[in-house]
Amino acid sequence: MTQLALVIDLNVCVGCHACVTSCKEWNTSGWAGPLTDLRPYDRDPSGTFFNRVQTFEIGAFPNTETVHFPKSCLHCEEPPCVPVCPTGASYKREDNGVVLVDYDKCIGCKYCSWACPYGMRELDEHQKVMKKCTLCIDRITDESLPEAERKPACVLACPTSARLFGDVHDPDSEVSVAIRENGGYQLMPEWGTRPANHYLPRRKTRIQIFEDELVRADNPLRKEAPLPAAEGETLDDVTF
Amino acid sequence: MHPAFSVIFLTTLIGVGQGLFLALVTGQVYSLANLLQPQDSVRFYALGSLLALIFLIAGLVASVFHLGRPERAWRAATRWRTSWLSREVIVLPLFMGLVFLYGFIHFMGWTDPLFIIRGRLPVDATLILGVLGALAAFALYGCTAMIYASIPFIEEWHSPYTPINFVLLGLASGFTLAAAFSAWLGVDLVAFYGAWAVIFTLAAALSRLLSMRRNARLVHKSTLQTAIGIRHNQIVQKSQGFMGGNFNTREFFHGAPPWKVRLVKIFFVLAVFVVPPLLLGLAWLIHSPQLPVAAFVVQYLGLLGERWYFFVEARHPQNLYYQSMA
Fold this sequence. Notes:
By secondary structure, chain A is an alpha+beta fold. Chain A is 17% helix and 18% strand. Chain B has a single domain, classed as Formate dehydrogenase/DMSO reductase fold, CATH 1.20.1630.10.
């Protein structure tokens, strides 16, 4: 069975919010819209978003690291929000594992939002129904789009390619390889919700150079002459 | 959690209605066993059922205000296989129907025995409906409480104390109302209902105080470390992604200052568990018809505080993501 999901690389995310704005732009005017804003230019603005980027500071000054943390529905494999829904408006698609809300059935009782430990669902104040990330279901299943564009808006917008999209059940997919090789993890594993979305941790990339590697060992006098470029090709230029 | 007044009124009002109905049926069973004087069908049972029905309907009306789309509320009966909320939506009208029928048959006086068991126990339609209604009342307590208790990660609610408290608090307030109702009618059942009300109130006090002690000592499973998956002891949120409020900051935070939470806690402990038994005891001593009514009013107001505190007490793990605005 397919389980579509995002893999978000915290090592690469720069916190630019491009995924947030592109998500809002695509979804407010699309199948899942509108994502209503209340008092956008007034005091106490509020609004519905499927995706947020939060920022955390790790460690004590001066040894701190700033981690930008994009947060959207994790499309759990055991979604706790689905069985609690009294109307069946909240459901998980059989064919690709995306968790969705049927706006025509939702009664706006907010019980599913209580039942999500991650707080990924938001009640739209205008439509009075529960809304959440759809993984851009109207893009990824639209066969009239070229294959490269059948991806969520946030993935296409990310300037650093911090967001990968694919089937986490296919062991050879890009996302599965990334999870496997880069230590991908799930949020709040203690609740057994088995989120499909994974996060890749911060990674340090260092090369180790020893002092003696910076000088040529076959140059005992430590004298560096200008390269004999003018004298034509040397043996160094033609052999490797 | 943000205390929603619609839900506070729903759970307390239907709790009282269920408790009152159970009190009426208890009275009927006692009088059947010749432990109590039989009461007048119309004046006591029919009127009592009407009173219970009024509380249930008021609760149902309150619940409508909780819904964003109340016109679709009928759909909520469809997922009873998995959702306790759906089960509550089914059991509540079922119970209301049984209460109505019970009161209606008493009102019409159709209380001739349908059959007699072993020549001693006359069974009439109201007894059958009363027993069925009592079962439905307990089922409804269970459904209402399990809505809260079934969510594993709201750990303050996810405990056997939640259903026990809902049952005992409902019974306490319902039997107090039955005592008040008897006193108001001048029926000689004030002491009977009052005694049971005191017993249920004290049992509820024990269970609620134990649950509060459990919640005060609770160590939550989720931490900021598991929430964002970074294993470091020192994590500080610098931004939650927006400057204003949103659904997550409104629905899951109560926003009440600590002094107010403490004040409500003291108020509800006194008003639910301390004052009503004292008033009922005093009413028994001086044969006052007003004091049981006062006891019920005080206890109901206290229950509103108790339910408010029930929500405020619960800390949702999603709050870990909203520690700092900017």
